[in-house]
Design brief:
Elements (H helix, E strand, L loop, with lengths): L1 E2 L2 H4 L2 E2 L9 E2 L3 E5 L6 H10 L8 H9 L8 E8 L5 E12 L2 E6 L11 E2 L12 H11 L5 E8 L1 E2 L2 E2 L8 E11 L6 H5 L2 H17 L2 E5 L3 H22 L8 H11 L11 E7 L2 E11 L2 E9 L3 H4 L3 H15 L4 E6 L3 H6 L2 E11 L2 H21 L2 H15 L1
Parallel strand pairs: 7-9, 16-17
Antiparallel strand pairs: 1-4, 2-3, 4-5, 5-6, 6-7, 6-8, 9-18, 10-11, 12-17, 12-18, 13-14, 14-15, 15-16
Amino acid sequence: MRFFSEALLHHPRSAGTRDGAASTRPDAVCLVSNPDSIKAEWDALFARSNASAYQSFDFYSACLDTLEQGVGASPFIIAFRAPCGRLRGLLPLVRRRRAGVTALEFCGGAHSNFNMPIGDDDPANPILSLGPFDWRDIVRTLDAGIDLLNFSNIPAIWSGARIALAGNGAHDAPDIACAMDIHPGNDAIRANVSAKRVKQYRRNIRRLAEIGEARFVQNTTPELNALILQAFLEQKSKQFSVRGHFNPFADKRCVDFLNRLSATADARDTRRLLFHALQLDGEVVATLGMLKQGATGAIMVMSMTANPFLARLSPGETLLMNVIEWCGQQRLNFLDFGVGGDAYKERVCQHMIPMRECHIGLTYRGELHARAARIASAGKRMIKQNPALLEPARRMQALLAG
């Protein structure tokens, strides 16, 4: 364990003295290389925190055992402990070797929609006030062999509070994220969606029922999980193929990751990927996978059939409306739609969340890579904001990916 300067990590902790005076002692910071050794503490801290569903132990562990296999990644988890030994904060990262530099990144890459530290609900918790340059100084003290901090998908605001990691030293990401408030109740669809959307939703259900038996199901059994996951992968493959885009779900590690995260899904389980699906005569025509953290839902993946006739009935949006209704019945009060400002999100979401990135070099080589990453991010942001450039860029990406 190492202790840091008062300016960085020191905060008052009441000693309970009779005259009201408070003693101050710093939190201890240590590096954890075996996440399994702190699983119980991680779960308890996560339950006390306002972190997103992507900071759970199960998500990190699933990423580490699947997506990060074969790419030279290893755990690099920064833990904060109170003087009494209680775990008060975590920054769950992985160490990777990329193009001659050793970088620290959040686990899961693009599959993790929101990245942030995990801190308990104490407003004086120092981990929640540390900015990018503070983390640079901490990492330098913990491991002199790190060249680069390469942090992505950091929300500027989360759960009504600013994220310090998205502050000075970070920059705007190419994408925004979308979210909506949920008004809990059995008639949540009317309370949360415009009358026009509700009418369209009811009409689509009636039209689907005229074609065959329409059912909404979840992956609450191994058989349904396998059926829905297979349909999701096939639909994504066709979607990316038609558009000429690179398909990240063709990677076996990604398939293993989704299978691992969804295998024991249950409506009461807040840590697993819960797949919802719309079936028509037994065929899965749309899927939606979401995580839960407390009263917050997080949409992680979506897909729909490539059948042009069924596509006119908007099975994807029909399933989404059903999921919003289900969220209200489950007493969820917030649903995030992940990164990206797609049209269907803008039709139902009230919140656009600014996203930030952080590329900071700790060595000369690391700073060269950080500058290149910042330039690439700015270029990507410019392309995404210009529709005339976006489609050619996607086709070029698919061509380079083979």
